[in-house]
Design a protein that fits this description.
Helix content is 26%, strand content 34%. The protein is an alpha+beta fold. It is elongated, with a radius of gyration of 49 Å.
Length: 389
C-alpha cells in the first residue's frame, strides 16, 4: 500500500508538468523568428577583355643576312700588288679594291697593239699594190694572175687583222682584270688578300655586302600561302626583344619539292646600321583574314588543376569560363574562349571565389603610396602590423 498522500503528490506533479509544457509552447509561439543574415559579397577588381590580332600561324628563328653579297675574285691569276680597302669600309660601285701585278698584262697588250699596227700597214700596202696592178692589167702590162694573188693576200691580211683585234680585246680585258672593283655600293665585310701573295683565279679576296636593308629568308607552309591569297600575311619581326619593320619582297611560286614549303624573303630597313648581319631575329607569321582573339591580363587566368579559366562578370555575379591560353601579347595574354571584347573579367579577388558568386566590383587602383595600407582582394584594409611589446 502506498503511503498516505502519495496519489495526491503524483497528481500535483503531473499538473505542474502539463503547465510547464504549456508555458514553453506559449513562449515558442510568442518569441520573434530567427533572422537569416546574408554574408557581405566579396570585393573584386575587374578589367575589360581586349581584341588582339590572331595568334601567329608559325614562328621562325632566322639570322639577319645581307640583302646582297659579292665575293670578289680575280678572273686571272697574279701577284697582289696592293690592297686598297679594309673591313667596314664603305665603297661605291666601281671603286678599286685590290690591285694585281699588271706587268705581264700590259706587256701583252703592247705586243698585240704592235702586231695590229704591222698588219694594218701591210694591208694598206697590199691595197695600193692591187690598185696599181689592176691598172696595169687593164693596159695589158700586167697579168691577171698577179691581180688574183694580191686579192688573195689582202683577204688573208684581213683575217689576220681580225684575229689580232680579238687578241687586243682580250689583252685590254686582262689588263683591266688586274684591278678588282666593287660591283655595287656596299660595305666591305671581309678581306682575304695580303700584299705579295699569289691570287689564283676564282679565289675570293674581298667580300662586299649590302647591309641596308638586311634580309630574312625562311619558308611558309601551304596553309600560310592560302591565307596570303585570301587576305594577306603580316610579319612581326623582333630582334633582342625590339620590334623592327619588315616588308615581304619575295614569295616563291614554286614549293620546295622536299618540304612542300614556299621560300619567302623579307627586307628589314637598316638606315642607321644598328642591326648587324648574323644576329638572330624572331619572325611571327600572322594571317590578315583571321578574326582577332580576346586578350586578358595574365592575372585574370586561374587554374583548376591544369585547366585554365577566367571569371566573367555578369551583372553582380561571376561565371567561370574555361579558356585556352595562346600567347603573350605585351601586357596581355590572348586566350581562346567565349569572351567578347569589352566584357569584364576578374583580375583580383578571393582565392575561393566560385561560380555564380555575387561580388562587388572595386575600381582598380594604383599601387599604394609609402605608408598607405593596400586594399585587399575582399575590399577591406588589412590589419596594421603587430608592434613589439
Amino acid at each position: 500500500m502506498p503511503p498516505r498522500g502519495f496519489a495526491a503528490g503524483v497528481s500535483r506533479s503531473r499538473r505542474r508538468s502539463r503547465a510547464l509544457v504549456l508555458c514553453v509552447g506559449l513562449a515558442a509561439c510568442t518569441s520573434p523568428p530567427d533572422t537569416q543574415i546574408d554574408p557581405t559579397p566579396p570585393h573584386v577588381y575587374a578589367a575589360p577583355v581586349e581584341a588582339r590580332t590572331a595568334a601567329p600561324l608559325s614562328v621562325h628563328l632566322v639570322p639577319l643576312e645581307a640583302s646582297r653579297r659579292s665575293r670578289v675574285a680575280p678572273r686571272i691569276g697574279g701577284t697582289i700588288r696592293d690592297v686598297l680597302v679594309r673591313e667596314e669600309d664603305r665603297v661605291k660601285k666601281g671603286d678599286a679594291l685590290v690591285q694585281l701585278d699588271a706587268t705581264d698584262a700590259r706587256g701583252g697588250l703592247v705586243a698585240v697593239r704592235g702586231t695590229a699596227a704591222q698588219l694594218r700597214a701591210r694591208l694598206e700596202d697590199a691595197r695600193r699594190e692591187l690598185a696599181r696592178t689592176r691598172d696595169l692589167a687593164a693596159r695589158g702590162m700586167e697579168s691577171a694572175r698577179r691581180v688574183e694573188a694580191l686579192e688573195t693576200e689582202i683577204v688573208a691580211l684581213r683575217g689576220q687583222l681580225r684575229e689580232v683585234q680579238g687578241n687586243l680585246i682580250r689583252a685590254r680585258d686582262k689588263s683591266k682584270a688586274t684591278v678588282l672593283s666593287a660591283p655595287f655600293d656596299g660595305v666591305v665585310t671581309r678581306v682575304d688578300a695580303e700584299v705579295g701573295e699569289y691570287a689564283a683565279p676564282g679565289t675570293p679576296l674581298v667580300t662586299v655586302s649590302v647591309l641596308a636593308p638586311l634580309a630574312l629568308e625562311f619558308a611558309v607552309t601551304e596553309d600560310e600561302v592560302a591565307h596570303f591569297e585570301r587576305g594577306g600575311l603580316s610579319f612581326e619581326v623582333t630582334v633582342d626583344g625590339r620590334t623592327v619593320p619588315a616588308e615581304l619582297t619575295y614569295l616563291s611560286s614554286e614549293a620546295d619539292p622536299g618540304t612542300s614549303s614556299f621560300p619567302v624573303r623579307l627586307a628589314v630597313p637598316n638606315p642607321d646600321g644598328t642591326l648587324r648581319a648574323g644576329r638572330s631575329a624572331r619572325v611571327r607569321v600572322r594571317a590578315a583574314d583571321l578574326p582577332p582573339e580576346p586578350a586578358v591580363p595574365p592575372e585574370a587566368i586561374r587554374y583548376r588543376g591544369d585547366r585554365p579559366y577566367v571569371f566573367l562578370l555578369e551583372g553582380d555575379t561571376v561565371r567561370m569560363v574555361p579558356v585556352r591560353v595562346r600567347e603573350e601579347r605585351g601586357e596581355r595574354v590572348t586566350v581562346e574562349g567565349p569572351l567578347a571584347a569589352g566584357a569584364k573579367v576578374v583580375v583580383a579577388g578571393p582565392v575561393n571565389l566560385a561560380d555564380d558568386d555575387r561580388v562587388v566590383v572595386t575600381e582598380r587602383r594604383a599601387p599604394p603610396a609609402p605608408g598607405e595600407a593596400p586594399v585587399q582582394a575582399d575590399g577591406a584594409a588589412p590589419a596594421p602590423p603587430a608592434t613589439g611589446p
